[in-house]
Design goal:
Elements lengths: L1 H12 L2 E4 L3 H9 L4 E4 L5 H10 L7 H14 L7 E10 L2 E3 L5 H11 L3 E12 L2 E14 L4 H11 L20 E5 L2 H4 L4 H8 L3
Parallel strand pairs: 1-2, 1-3
Antiparallel strand pairs: 3-4, 3-5, 5-6, 6-7
């Protein structure tokens, strides 16, 4: 218990490393007033994901497992610093949705999601001295409005190719609300990071 308190106290007063290339996660944590630096994960995320799926890992726990792998990959190089990893997936019809590579693919994806619900699952892992000391995972449900072809075309014309960085082909912090009917769950989780449980972890002392 004493060691845990010391680790959390250090976390509250010193910067940590965010093992991520995500601009949205960076903005989210900066806006929350946290002090950190970023570095890319030192692991092949897609390879690890494929391995976990081949092992019949429950899709819904993938974010937590991938977040751990990302954090550990950096912690192995920086063992004396606290490292935070995070990962997000979208589940639709029990299948993992990947990013669209073109606006044409984005159009087809929005046609499938139109009028339906899907789940956004985000996991976060904190590692120190090459070990995971805390983790959490949150699920939010999003329903997309019933969209016709004209609405989808107009939406993609406004968003442009930046929408290809969003797995669901929407950015809830930008133009996403124009096509989203409802969000059930943690809003920050939709942005790609379960902020509330993370801040709760930081405030334990």
């Amino acid at each position: 218990m004493f060691i845990t308190i010391c680790v959390v106290h250090m976390f509250l007063n010193k910067p940590f490393i965010l093992a991520s290339n995500s601009a949205s996660r960076y903005r989210l944590l900066k806006n929350a007033g946290l002090n950190f630096t970023t570095t890319p994960p030192l692991c092949n995320e897609e390879h690890i994901k494929r391995q976990l799926i081949q092992k019949s890992t429950n899709k819904k726990i993938l974010p937590k497992l991938l977040a751990k792998e990302k954090a550990l990959s950096v912690s192995l190089k920086r063992p004396n610093q606290l490292v935070v990893g995070s990962d997000t997936i979208i589940i639709f019809n029990n299948m993992i949705i990947n990013k669209a590579n073109t606006l044409e693919e984005a159009k087809k994806k929005l046609q499938k999601l139109s009028g339906k619900k899907h789940q956004i699952i985000s996991g976060v892992s904190v590692c120190y001295k090459n070990k995971q000391i805390w983790s959490s995972q949150q699920t939010s449900t999003i329903q997309i409005k019933k969209l016709n072809q004209k609405q989808i075309n107009n939406y993609l014309k406004k968003t442009g190719k930046q929408i290809l960085y969003s797995v669901g082909c929407y950015q809830v912090e930008k133009l996403g609300p124009h096509i989203i009917k409802s969000i059930n769950g943690d809003f920050f989780n939709v942005l790609g990071f379960p902020l509330f449980p993370f801040l709760s972890f930081l405030s334990k002392v």
